[in-house]
Amino acid sequence: MAHETKKKFTPRLVKNAAPAKASGRSVELAGWGRYPIVRGNERQSEDLADITRDAVLTRGLARAYGDASLPPAGDRNVASSVLADRLLAFNRNTGIVRVEAGFPLMRLNRFSLPRGWFTPVTPGTHFVTVGGMVAADIHGKNHHVAGCFGEHVRSFKMRVADGAIIECNDENHDLFRATLGGMGLTGHLLEVEFQMERIPSPWIWEESEQLPNFETVLERLEDAGREWPFTVCWSDFLVTGSNAGRALLMKGRWAKPEEAPAGLPQWRSAPTFPIQLPSWALQTWMMRIGNFLNYTKHGAAVRRHIVHPETFYYPLDVIREWNRVYGKRGFTQHQAVLPAPHTHRRHEQYLRLLHDLRAKVFLSVVKDCGDEGKGMISFPKRGVSYALDIPIDQGTQQVVDRLNDFVVAEGGRIYLAKDAFTRPEHFRAMDPRLDGWNEVRRKWDPEGRLKSALSVRVLGDRA
Amino acid sequence: MNVAFLGASKGMGRALARRMAERGDRICLLGRDLEDLKRSAADLENLGATGEVGVTSCDLADTKGFAAALAAAKDALGDIDTVVVSAGAFGDQEALEADSEARDRLLTLNFTNTIHFCELARTMLLERGGGRLCVFSSVAGERGRKPVILYGASKAGLSYYLEGIDHKFHSQGLSVTVVKPGFVKTGMTAGLDPPPFAGEPDGVARDVLKAIDRGQPVVYTPAIWQWVMLVIRYLPRAVMRRIGF
Ligand SMILES: Cc1cc2nc3c(=O)[nH]c(=O)nc-3n(C[C@H](O)[C@H](O)[C@H](O)COP(=O)(O)OP(=O)(O)OC[C@H]3O[C@@H](n4cnc5c(N)ncnc54)[C@H](O)[C@@H]3O)c2cc1C
Ligand SMILES: NC(=O)c1ccc[n+]([C@@H]2O[C@H](COP(=O)([O-])OP(=O)(O)OC[C@H]3O[C@@H](n4cnc5c(N)ncnc54)[C@H](OP(=O)(O)O)[C@@H]3O)[C@@H](O)[C@H]2O)c1
To answer: Three-state DSSP class for B134?
Structure first.
């Protein structure tokens, strides 16, 4: 695929600026990867309906890596949902919950676990809002059995582009499916109602094992998925040779009452990573050593134990703002799904490509996905997903371009919630569903009022 | 506790009411937007508040409604043993200097009307043999400072009033807790750059609830502000001038 000239890359420091109040004040905004940075008028209030009136986008806890939660350049109004965080309804018999869109997952978990319920799907961090979970139609370790979060959403209230506020469900509006995974571009979510999952105990039974190379990762992930509701692999893509792509496979299920410890899990507060390290601080060789230690420390034997649900689901959340270790250059994540059937050849080539590109994959998570869900433009489809954390440097655009060439050729696609570099021509080639989704979007927003930095970059929206 | 709460719809008040709900206190919400209060009531009921969380209309800008609001809260709760006032307003110093109406509104709300409300609340509590009155003032009321002269003055006056009623009625069973938050990240301060030691509403709520339970007359929160204010209180004026306070 032909590309334009290389995108100019200029990393800058994100100031820890406070969002502005209703009157608005221009501040620098960024996602989790701290790249790109856009100036915007972020407004924050408990009254989300009020601040979404003239906003081009609503954002939550800004855990999308790239520019999904950023307004287009030019000091546009963006609403922050984080103060809209009330638990509007909880039925302890049916597990149906209704929350305001800024309700944080961490609070939901800590509320529901002792009551015998848990979110049906969770991402790898609990510092997200329910609105963000719907807008990205997030997937988790149980995607192969539970699908995306959107499968469990019953309805939501949303402010659409013309200012109207509507209650939307799968029966009454095409907008419902367009909003799941629609990255906030179909309207401002104000409230969400969804079905929780009943759990036998608030603890997790976990088994983990070493997988010595990439072939075993593919085989064991698939096998494990037949038995276990939660599976994921932490792979090492820095190691080369016969051990390339070796991994730790984590499998889990909710502990049965008779296995679970007597008490409830205790909630721990996480310390914050205190400073932003210089960009050179985290080097590839350090990550090599870290990955090696992580792998060897586990040992060859299968480990079985009861774990705290937060340890199991959110290992990275033990330190807040760990993204500061990447320094001001920031980092990106390239998450792509390569479709089933899982031909080893295809995956081997992907690995080789990463190697040839000398991609600095500091962290990589491999997970098999189940079938495509309701979301018209949601990321997952049956196949294997690779989430690769890559520190940003001059070569990142090229790495992402080459990876995307491969993804397109193999019929895969990328996850917008992680993306900062994908070009429009790649995205269009990956996702034939785009036209259908755009049609619904334009029907509800003919003037193109709702937009983000991502929609301008990838979808061709006018800034 | 049976709590009548003015200001639980947002910010630190919301966080404090949640902590009360989580441990099963009974709560009645006072505020100016009844429909919105009902949603806060649902939030608190879901979190574990005992019984139905009542809502009753009360605008701090309108003193005429205070007695009826407290009476309605008493009806809803049966007995009120605790009254919390976290309602208040902030105003940018420059804007307040430029606009006498805005100035009047802020001073009236934070000082005069809050005191009128507290007078009714403490009378009601004393009639039943005592109780707890917890009111949000501010560290801004400790010293006159350039960026918050008027807001600070309203809170300084409020703090002195609260200290006074504590002295006068403590022996009759009234336990007064004055909350002096430092900078806390709420909707009120959104848009201002957070200084070092900026607090979160839930941390404040934890500190305040502990203080109410203990009958502590003054609580600085986040706790570090106690030490910061100790220094600032005794800072010579010449030094304050020098560093541009
Ligand atoms: C460490 C880490 C691990 C992660 N693991 C996973 C994972 O396992 N699986 C997965 O699927 N994702 C994962 N993510 C990504 C994350 O779950 C999503 O990006 C999620 O959308 C973030 O939620 P947020 O509240 O931070 O939203 P933001 O990042 O603020 O926004 C994300 C998108 O949602 C939209 N949005 C947010 N709130 C609203 C609203 N109220 N109305 C309309 N649109 C809204 C925004 O416009 C934006 O497009 C991970 C992220 C991190 C940092
Ligand atoms: N945030 C800080 O850094 C800080 C620092 C020191 C002191 N304080 C003080 O702490 C208290 C709480 O502050 P906050 O930051 O939590 O504020 P906030 O988030 O703005 O909440 C203010 C609360 O006051 C209520 N209120 C305002 N005007 C009212 C009126 N006329 N009638 C009835 N209720 C009214 C609001 O109710 P509605 O829902 O009706 O708007 C809301 O519940 C205030 O007294 C403030 O001055 C704050």
So the answer is: strand
Q: Tens digit of pLDDT for each residue in A84-129? A: 999 999 999 999 999 999 999 999 999 999 999 999 999 999 999 9
Tokens of A376: 């018209």
> Which ligand has the nearest atom to the CA of B134?
2
What pTM did the predictor assign? 0.95
Residues of B in contact with A46 (CB under 8 A): 9-11, 14, 187
Domain A204-255+276-429 bears CATH identifier 1.10.10:
no
List the single best residue of A23, A83, A106 to mutate versus B (max B Cβ within 10 A): A83
CB contact (8 A) between residue B194 and residue A46: no
The answer to whether A44 touches A102, Cβ cutoff 8 Å, is: no
Query: What is the rounded CA–CA span in Å between residue B163 and residue A352?
Result: 73
The CATH topology of domain B2-242 is Rossmann fold (3.40.50)
CA–CA distance, A69 with A452 (Å, rounded to integer): 7
What residue type is assigned to position B241 of the chain?
R
Neighboring chain B residues of A90 at a CB cutoff of 8 Å: 46
Burial class (CB in 10 A: 0-12, 13-18, 19+), B110: buried
Distances (CA, A) of A426 to A71, A345, A422, B136: 22, 22, 7, 55
Confidence category of residue A24, pLDDT binned at 50, 70, 90: low
Using a CB–CB cutoff of 8 Å, tell me whether A129 touches chain B.
Answer: no
pLDDT in tens, B80-131: 999 999 999 999 999 999 999 999 999 999 999 999 999 999 999 999 999 9
Domain ranges of chain B: 2-242
Query: Does residue A224 carry a pLDDT above 50?
Result: yes
Pairwise CA distance, residues B68 & A366, whole Å = 62
pLDDT at A4: 43
